[in-house]
Amino acid sequence: MKRINLEKILLFFFVAAWVNLPGMVYEKWSLDILTLGHGKNMIPYLLPLLLFFFCYYFYRSEWSTRFSNPFYGVAHMIVNKTRTEDKVLGVLIIYMIFINHITAILDSSESNLRMIMPLITAHFFYWLYRRYSYISKIDNLKDFFGQCIFFSVMIMLSLQMLMFLGFIPGLVDDTAADTQEKLFNFIQVNGSHIASSSYTALILLFLLLFYKIKLPAPIILMGFVLIFIALIVNQVRGALLPAAILLILYSFGKLNFRNILFLIVATYLVAMFIYTNQDHRVFSFDSSANERVLLMTKTWEAFIEYPIFGQGSYFAQNLRFGFTTQFVVHNYYLRFLVSYGVIGFLIFLCYLQPLFLRRFTYRDIVGLFVVFSIFTFDAYLYWAIMIIAAFHNADINEVSLKKKELIMKAA
Fold first, then answer.
1. Burial of 11 by CB count in 10 Å (0-12 exposed, 13-18 middle, 19+ buried)?
2. Is 94:20 a contact under the CB 8 Å cutoff?
3. Residue 256 dihedral angles phi and psi, to the nearest 5°
């Protein structure tokens, strides 16, 4: 019992780090060296706990007893039982480092890990959870994992709302004095975490709709309410649009009279709201949207100059296009293409395929839509997308076990 409780505590903090919940605390006091927000630094949140979780898995695994030297044991644990996505990521990382070094030499610039470390960190969370699931003593691990995700994201969104309302200082920029006035007048508050919390809320919305996290109905309802409040308050268009499409896809996946009626009523209400608020930033093509389109156009032109191998992550990070301050194009595809070219992007797609689309079920395709929606509207790799991969692969493992059971019964 003690071991199970320890594992549950460790898993909750592991998931909290995975969804970037500690960032609400670390970045509040500007301990930037411990952040990986927007891919700037290499040290993940709660590093000591993650290291302890890794050591705990190694201690409980077969590799700790097969080798007297723990370093050999860890090395064999990492290398053995690798899957397609692990191997493709290795190829991708080697290619990215090579392009970064070559372009740094040719341009007399610097070679950095700015786009590499987020990939490694995100995959580390996925890899460690997958390996840990083999030795865990927690009953119904997938259900408990989903509950940890739910409460971690709920804490994150609650913290953000409390900060916006003034109960907890921090999070917002210099406009903190009129934050509440902006909120009640449906004006976006330029908070430090509105993008990351919105995309994390979008991921949780997908999991609640398509994977049925096992919690009491009132708690799930509270989760939906908080997700929609966060999306509306944050007003991140790159999360609002996919969320609306996600609800439509869910209704189409389960067509019945109630869902059809819901679609008709919701479409009418949304249409009326848009009609009466045409000048609002969410529905208008404002200066922010113009800047993003300009950045996409200029980045595409830069990609066309070197389409095969790209120009390295240092070049992509320092594209200015005449701006006095540094902007990064808000589109992960374009940022990756201009950095590593078509070859790098094809390897990246080969990496994503076994993570999110081992089967072509409706749910898996919708999950891939969520991932690519985030890539479309933001320039950074959010670790939380790999949670969808964890659910996707756990689902496949369950199907494989059921098939084996049927074969054994038939025999």
1. buried
2. no
3. -150, 180
The residue with tokens 């430090």 is 192
pLDDT tens-digit series, residues 360-382: 788 889 999 999 999 988 877 78
Q: How far is CA 213 from the centre of its chain?
A: 18
Other CB atoms within a 10 A radius of the CB of residue 228 amount to: 15
Between CA 354 and CA 288 the distance in angstroms is 35
Write the pLDDT tens digit of every residue in 137-196. Answer: 888 888 999 999 999 999 989 888 887 777 766 555 444 566 666 666 666 676 667 888
Rounded to whole angstroms, how far apart are CA atoms 383 and 218? 28
Q: What is the pTM of this model?
A: 0.84
